[in-house]
Structure formats: C-alpha cells, structure tokens
Amino acid sequence: MEILVIGAGVGGLAVSRALLAAGHRVRVYEQAPARRTGGKALLVWSNGNAVLNDLGISLDGVGARIDRIDAMTDDGRLRTSMDIAHAAGRFGFATQAIPRRHLLERLGDGLPDDLVRYGTSCQGVSQDDDRVTVTFSDGSTATGDLLVGADGHHSAVRRHLWGDGSVQPATFGTWQGLSPIDIDLTGTHRHLMITGPEGACGLMPAGDGLLQWWFDVRWSPTDPRPAAPLAELRRRFGRWASPVPEVLAAATEDDLEFFGHHWNKVRPVWGEGRITLVGDAAHTMPPTLGQGANQTLEDAWVLGRELARGGDPAVRLRAYEKARYPHISLVSRLAKRNPANWRIPPLLGRLIPETSQTGMLARFSNRLTTPAVRSA
Ligand SMILES: Cc1cc2nc3c(=O)[nH]c(=O)nc-3n(C[C@H](O)[C@H](O)[C@H](O)COP(=O)(O)OP(=O)(O)OC[C@H]3O[C@@H](n4cnc5c(N)ncnc54)[C@H](O)[C@@H]3O)c2cc1C
Question: CA-CA distance, 287 to 298, in Å (whole number)?
Fold first, then answer.
C-alpha cells in the first residue's frame, strides 16, 4: 500500500520504519525545514526500548542507563525507591535517558534520504472509499491508500477528524533544561524525583556529562510569563535540600525552556475510514509518567503489525486503535495528575520492602504495555 505520514517526530519516523519493513511505500511530510536537532532528554523505558530493538534500533553509546528512581521530600528524606534495573532485567531491556536529537537520529538512521519532505505543512485532509488526499500549505496535494497523522499535540489530522477543542490545558507546566551540571548525580545511573509544597523537581543523568533537570509548577494558559524565570525558580525552590540549590546555581536562563502541558481524553476509536493517528495526535498528555514517546513507539509497532496482516485496511486501522485503547487511556488518565501531588509518605516508603515496591512497579509497567509488545 501507499501510505502518507504527516510528521517526522518520534511517531512518524518509528511508524515509517515499521511500515517500510512490512513492504509498504511510505511518504512523510514534515512542517519543520529540517530534522530537529534540539530538545531536551527523554526517558525511554523498557517498553519503548523493546519496540526500538524490534525496529532494528539500538541505544548503545547514547544517553545514560537509569537503574534507580528515588522519590524524595523537599527536605531530603527518601519517600520511596524503585529498582529500575531489576524491572529492566525482568523485561529484557534497559531504561535509558537520551537527548531527543539522538533518539531522532537513531530512528532516522538507514531510512531513504528522500523519505521525508521537509518544509511541508498539512492543512487539509479528505477521503473517499479508496483514497486519502492531503492538501499542504503551498497548495500542493498528495494522495495515498492510507493516512497516518503523526503530527503531535497540535495535530492538523486530528482537527480534521475530531474538530477543534478536544485538547485542554492541564493544570501544570514544566521549566526544564539539559546542561552540563557538575554534581555527583550527573555521573550516576540514579534519577531523583523531589516533591514539596512549591511543586516538583526531577533530576536525571542523560550521558556525556549532561543532567536533565526540570521543575513542575502550577500553570494556566492565562498566567503571565515571569520576566526572569530562573530567578523565580531560585526563589521558589532554592531552599530545597541538596542538590537542588547546586543545580539552580549552575543553570543559566539560556538553558531554560517552558512547556505548558495539555491533555485530551483518549477515544476508543480515534480514526475514521482510511485515516488514523499515532502518538500525541491521538493522546496528548503531560509527561508525568515519562511515557508519551514510549506509548508513541508502541502505537507505531502495533500499527505496523496490524497493517502487515493484510485485508481491509480500514478494518486493520480500527483493530490497531482497539488494541491500544485500554493501555493508552490508563497511562493518559494517570499522567493528567500533577506530579507534585504524588506524595508517598516517607514512613510508608520505609514500611513497604523494596522488593515489593519493585514488584509493584513491574506489574504496573505490564499494565501500561500492549500485550503483543510484551510478548514480542
Ligand atoms: C517537557 C516534556 C518532557 C517529556 N518527557 C518525556 C519522557 O521522559 N519520556 C517520554 O516517553 N515522553 C516524554 N515526553 C513526551 C514526548 O515528547 C511525546 O509524547 C512524543 O514526542 C510524541 O511523539 P509524536 O511523534 O507524537 O510527536 P512529536 O515528537 O511532537 O512530532 C510531531 C511532528 O509533527 C510535525 N508537525 C506538526 N504539525 C504538522 C503539520 N501540520 N504538517 C506537517 N508536520 C507537522 C512537528 O513539526 C513534529 O516534527 C515529554 C514531553 C514534554 C513536553
């Protein structure tokens, strides 16, 4: 089949790999003028890493393996600790923090040079019983057998399917940076999550001497931007226990990026006819669980498998959506909650043995993962 993909982000590149491997002809249209080289780091969990492996992609040599997540109070007490290495051993794939540009490079490695047409923005979509047509901002059109909208949280393809207004602002946003911060944590495989009355802070080694650091704060789209955000973060979080003050002292305004988060209720059927969606286009959510890109990779993998089965393509697209719905709707509902509210009392963390906590994490991760990905 001839398949059109809108967007060359994580989902668009992953789905293209899966579809090309199954023998389809694929054309990708991306609004950006060239492949994205910026962006901060992402946490690729065992489920995402399993999909990457099946798509022929290794994360060896980039980023940093994460073996443990410690949840802390703002005054430095341990709430709970999760042995990610143990869970990774059970699933067979490590959890890795990796700068987004490296992930996009690895997803693009080996794909045909002319696969992606950059600088091409999808404006309109139409379909009949046999074909789908996309109209671009320069007035040109493309026609194919199927269309995959992988165009992220402002998706034009989703707007065509669902209309306006389906994506709502969440209650919080993230100030984040990825920079060389010379503290002990940067050279480890330990990820810290710290919560207190002022918000939440995450610190995650991302390889090459880089630390990914972020601060989640309450946010609404009508809030004015602070004139000096770093000074505001220092005022708000500067009294927290080490290493938060050291990170804030080493950070610069240039490192900072802000994301106000959004969320949509996942629909049991999110496509129509010969059109479907993958990734944030279908399930925009805050990064509370660090699962957005991982679930996007699962989408790409399941869609690739469904379309390799042949038969009526519209039926296969609905089967893909049905297989993904229970998992992605659970992840999405959990991710909607502000991480600053996830406050496990330190005493409870000490009372539940670490092996039980790790077992709970493994069972929870299983529920987030599509069964076919688990058994692949
Ligand atoms: C602060 C933050 C931290 C995050 N951390 C994590 C994490 O640790 N782990 C994790 O798994 N996920 C994380 N995520 C979520 C993750 O970034 C997304 O879920 C993931 O990138 C979704 O991939 P996608 O392909 O759907 O969208 P994107 O990666 O956004 O790609 C969409 C692409 O479509 C293109 N496009 C858009 N509109 C058009 C158009 N009209 N025509 C043509 N092209 C178009 C865009 O330019 C872009 O290249 C985080 C997100 C944020 C904001």
Answer: 16
